[in-house]
Amino acid sequence: xxxxxxxxxxxxxxxxxxxxxxxxxxAAGLFLLHGPTGAGKTSVLDAVCYALYxxxxxxxxxxxxxxxxxxxxxxxxxRSEVTLxxxxxxxxxxxxxxxxxxxxxxxGSGTTLDKAGTWLREYDARAGAWKDLSRSHQEIGxxxxxxxxxxxxxxxxxVLLPQGDFARFxxxxxxxxxxLLGRLFDTRRFAEVEKRLAERRRATETRVRDGDAELLADxxxxxxxxxDAMELPALAPGDPGLADAVLTAAAVARSTAREQLTAxxxxxxxxxxxxxxxxxxxRDVRELARLxxxxxxxxxxxxxxxxRADAHRQAQQRMERSRKAEAVAPALDLxxxxxxxxxxxxxxxxxxRTPLPDHLADAGAAGLAAAARRAAEELGGLDAAxxxxxxxxxxxxxxxxxxxxxxxDEDVREEAEAWLAEWDTLRTGLQNGVDAAQQAxxxxxxxxxxxxxxxxxLTAARQRDRLALDCDEAQRQALASAEHAVGARAxxxxxxxxxxxxxxxxxxxxxxxxxxxxxxxxxxxxxPARKFAGHVDRDxxxxxxxxxxxxxxxxxxxxxxxxxVREALAAATAEAGDAPAGRLAAEAExxxxxxxxxxxxxxxxxxxxxxxxxxxxxxxxxxxxxQEAAVRAASRVGHRERLDREKAGLEEELARARGALxxxxxxxxQLERQVALLTDAADRARTAQDTAQRLKAADSRLADAAFRxxxxxxxxxxxxxxxxxxxxxxxxxxxxxxxxxxxxxxVLAEADTAVAAQAPPADVTAAEHGLxxxxxxxxxxxxxxxxxxxxxxxxxxxxxHAAASVRRLGPLREEHDRIARMAGLAxxxxxxxxxxxxxxxxxxxARLEQVAAAATARLQRMSSGRYTLVHSDDRTGRGRSGLGLxxxxxxxxxxxxxxxxxxxxxxxASLALALGLADVVTDEAGxxxxxxxxxxxxxxxxxxxxxxxxxxxxxxxRERDRxxxxxxxxxxxxxxxxxxxxxxxxxxxxxxxxxxxx
Length: 998
Hints:
- Helix content is 68%, strand content 10%.
- It is an alpha+beta fold.
- The protein has a 6-stranded antiparallel beta sheet with strand order 2-1-4-5-8-9.
- α6 crosses α23 (839-862), α8 packs antiparallel against α22 (764-827) and α23 (839-862) packs across α24.
- The radius of gyration is 64 Å and the shape is flat.
């Protein structure tokens, strides 16, 4: 771990923002942190610890979650903050922490509490930028602890070396050393091992007893499965011979059950054979009944065929005459077609001759055609007159259209002039409507901006009122929980005191004759203590402790809930202020009503603007219409005169062509009708003559075809001919009769059917009753066989389970003996543990031996080879064994207590011990490299030569690329160490000055 930069704002004695460049300080290897007493030297180290762990060492963390870390010199609006840039485990990280603080409210008076904040970033070398990792306190704490591999207490002992603590450690007794070493090396897991071994010893005892009970329960289940075929041994769980007796009884029960299963298999085989015989008999009877029914049905169908034989012969004769008549069918169709065609032609000729004049009624086709040609020639001479008449009609219509246009233009001109006279008044009214809508739209935008703040404030006010009630309830609950927790703690302490009073009786209960006492070690117990009435055992104390812990957890949970409700209430109050929710609701409602009214008024802006634009377009259109009407009136005068002259010439020409009729068209229409009638009559006469000739030829061919087919007349052939539907129906009846006849003959010819018809009637019912009785007997035999098989399977399963239980109990007893020996060895109560050392004490002694060896390497250099630290595993009275610490004086060759060292010797001995402990803890933490260390005070007790040797030892740490920061008042160190960080205090707060660093 290497520190790069530290930024401190409003933290401890530092009212403003101060920065420390550790890279520059560490370049020299040694750097000095000095300043007057109370200036804030330790606060710099506290800031490093706070940035990493979110808390500071010792009692300086008091005051909740770090509320007292804020500088009293800071401005009210300045937020306390610590930012640390460091490299750990090869990763460049930046940690920023902000402790909670009470800041002034943004609205109104008073303060509000802001929660603590934490940010973790990592530098991405490839991107050349910082990237955010987390903002969670818990996640960041777990990440940093995992990377450093040590807790806050270990960090403070290893990186921030407190010289005073190690001086006390050097002189402390074994009990005090054990507490410190246990805190640094976290040997709680070894205590848990001791506890776990004791629990496993109790568990194996219970499992052995439970195994016997389970075996006896299997025996009872086997007795239930075997019925009366098994007798249980009269033994209880734990009695010798229980397993063998149960297994023997199980073997007898299994043998009896298998004999019963063999008998059930024999009965089942006999029942299956009887059922197969009955099933075959039923199938034979059903087949006989089917054949008898088939023969009777065939006889009945033969009788019905004989009854329909005459009708079948008549149908055959009718089919034969129809086949002969099919040869005459084409001639019949041709004659009917010719007759129909002739009748239609004669009717059409009569219809065409009816409109003709009397002198043409009896004319032939040639005369009618000649008359049509003469009428057509006369019609061709009227084309010029017809065109003149059509031109005259167009002239009259055009003259009338001119008069109509003139009247319409006059009406348009008058209407446009009347509308334009009202234009100024209309335009003023429309413009006023547009202006009013624009003003409403502006007002609506202003109100829209005010709506959302009003809503938020109303919501916050309602939440504030609700949270105020919740806060009162949470406060009452927290008070009740606190009172309950106090009562539970008092009850637990009372029971604990009562148990300690009678602990001798509890220990005496576990004494066995000839076994050593766990307290005094004596194998004789002349007067063991006896439990008195109302004795409190361990279970009662643990129940009281559990109740106390639950009550304490409930109290802490209620206090956390109270804090959360108060924070939410403060936030809602800051948003809503002190205004009542009712008044804010009324104001918000009034604002919404006014906003709705202005929006409704503003919604007509677009319509008003469109209406104004349409009116302006209408004015322009009406002005243009008036001008166009005047131009058209002037152009119509000359056109009217030309039309009048042309009309007079055409009327004179048509008077000559019309004759007696009203118009040329009437004369032409008369001639066109005459030509059409004469032409149609001539065509119809020629068609009638042709169809008469074809009808005569068809009659001749029909008579010849009927004679050749064997019919006397064509009418007889037509009667014999069948239609398609009648022919298909007749053929279907004939085919069905022949198929039925063939089927009946085939059935009556079957040998099996004839033999069955000679046999007595089959009795199917009796055969079915026989099969049902055989099925019932088979089901009974299957049920008996299944019950015997289940009994055998159940006895086999239970016997196997019992045998497995017996096999399992042997290793379980061996495991119990082994665990019991291990538990006694770990607890220090076993005879094999010669020094009566618990496991945790043994581990701490090993760690202390490593620390003494690591410290000796530096102590010998500091003391010029005179002193060596060694540990002792001798017991001191009734205290811990293995945690003694002595110093060996090379000048005298004697080993003596560390308390005999002088002040200066104590300092460099404790410093060597601290450095050695740092190395051991670092290795214990996974080998995390610690590149930056701090040593706090103690250098004033050294003479110049010893100081040089100590500084040489510290300076040698640079060989491992370490930097050491010395926190000291000693003035001589300022001359010896050039890289310095000075803390200067002032009435306005302390500041940092960095010098001598590159």
